[in-house]
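Format notes (please read before filing issues)

Several people have asked whether sequences and structure tokens are stored in separate files. They are not. Every record keeps both together, in the order shown below: the sequence lines, then the token lines. Line labels are part of the format and must not be stripped during preprocessing.
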Amino acid sequence: MSVPERGVSEVDDHPALSFQRTVDRSLVHRTAIAEVFVVDSIATGDRQCEVGAQLPLTHGYYSDHLAEPARYDPILLLEICRQAAIYGSHAIVGVSLGTAMIIGSFTLRLHNDGLRTGSRPGDLVLVTTYRGEPTKRGRVRNAGVSQDLVLDGTVVGRHEMKLTALRDSELEALRRHQRGATPPSTADYQGHASGHPVPSHLVGRRDPRNVVLTDLRRGDGGVTATVSPYFGNNALFDHEYDHLPAMVITEAARQAATATVDDGTGALVRNHVITGITASFEHYAELDQKLVASTSTRAMPDGANTVDVAFSQGSSRVAEISLEIVSRRGGE
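Then the structure lines:
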């Protein structure tokens, strides 16, 4: 899949972004400075901007992979896309602080040949366009974001996201209404909430604290598992949540897909590369209800496999995430 060449030309036609320091953490909705990757932004038009971010070479969560050769983590790119969209909405579009950005869906397409890590951190430019019509009160509630990803001058992918913007007070009221009471907080949980964590090598990890699945079972053409992350992992839970956030569910999808295309020993994990992720989120993933992930696989004409991961709590479908995975051997 090709990405429009305008991404490169736009980057070249505007003043250079500064990659000297990260932005104010509150503008990307992070608590820890170490989890901020956005460095700068420049307005390039009406609801258009370029956002700069630096990709770390070493990170306790995003760099913890068995795949070789080393590539930048697709979920790191998703997190940066999320941060860049939030930062631009505040710094460029003028969305007020105290506004929650609720992800409805996203699509990420990657050119992995350009995502290998080098000897220095990667400088990523996100050519970003915002969409959305304001209400009579001048607020944009339902918005869209499109981002071309340019890494060290090379177009490496494209991200599109749909989201809903609500004031924090509105979101709190909505959550109380949905449940009939105040929901629990991630601060109330420690370790893995339940079950037997999947051995880390079976989901492409070294550190067991980065494993988010328990009680993995294999069936005909797929796996099922319970989503039960390690709540002490600050990369996943940078601040308190009253639900399992979208990035945790996406990580669960990646791990379930990895286990699905492996042979059950972890031997094939090193050869698999994710080239695309598509997700839709229908309901909040409640902390006090069991969240189950179930996978199925589709073979694609180009030789890739698409693993579909469905997430459910009881009879309610929470999310659906599809990952495109290719096998690359011999250092490809």
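For reference, the curators noted about this record: The chain is about 15% helix and 35% strand. The longest helix spans residues 74-93.
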